[in-house]
Target: 5'-3'-deoxyribonucleotidase
Amino acid sequence: MLILLDQDGVLADFERGFHEAWDTRMGNLHPALPLEQRRAFYVRDDYPDTYRNEVEAVYHAQGFYRDLPVISGAIEAIQALLEFGHDVRICTSPLNQYRFCLPEKYEWVERNLGPDFVHRMIVTKDKTVILGDVLVDDKPSVTGTRTPAWQHVIFDQPYNRQADGPRMTWENWNAVLGTVRTFDGKH
Ligand SMILES: Cc1cn([C@H]2C[C@H](OP(=O)(O)O)[C@@H](CO)O2)c(=O)[nH]c1=O
Ligand SMILES: [Mg+2]
Model:
């Protein structure tokens, strides 16, 4: 299968990175929301409007995307998927404020998956134009200008539990991906 893996919220732990950076900057005024209480996909929507600028300052900051921790189990699972013979790509959207986010997404992949993996990066604002059998993404609804070729498998996070459909973690990935059908109907 051609497997598209989203980066933030699937491989890179945006939530933990945000939580730690927020507590360092703002914790004395408004402690970071615990992960299990996150409900909105965009972290800014779970914080009071009065903190909008401070929330954005956290992920617009230099080093934020580069230094995100790895979601536990992701690297080992990618190695296993490659060994199974799957074609694995990273399919990620940059912030409109791309100055640090965009190069740092590449740095993150180079650092955590190795320089060869940089070849596997697909950076797009519209994931529906990208071909694949499956897109593993933490966004509850991935939309764009086309009817996607891929099947969306939701990567389980507290803020996407309202969405229907198959959901995956780095514990159950093997079973969940086994249910995805490829273009030609073969598994
Ligand atoms: C602003 C914001 C971005 N992101 C991620 C999603 C995108 O990466 P990805 O497509 O790899 O999941 C990237 C730019 O929006 O940052 C969040 O996960 N939560 C947020 O609140
Ligand atoms: Mg994501």
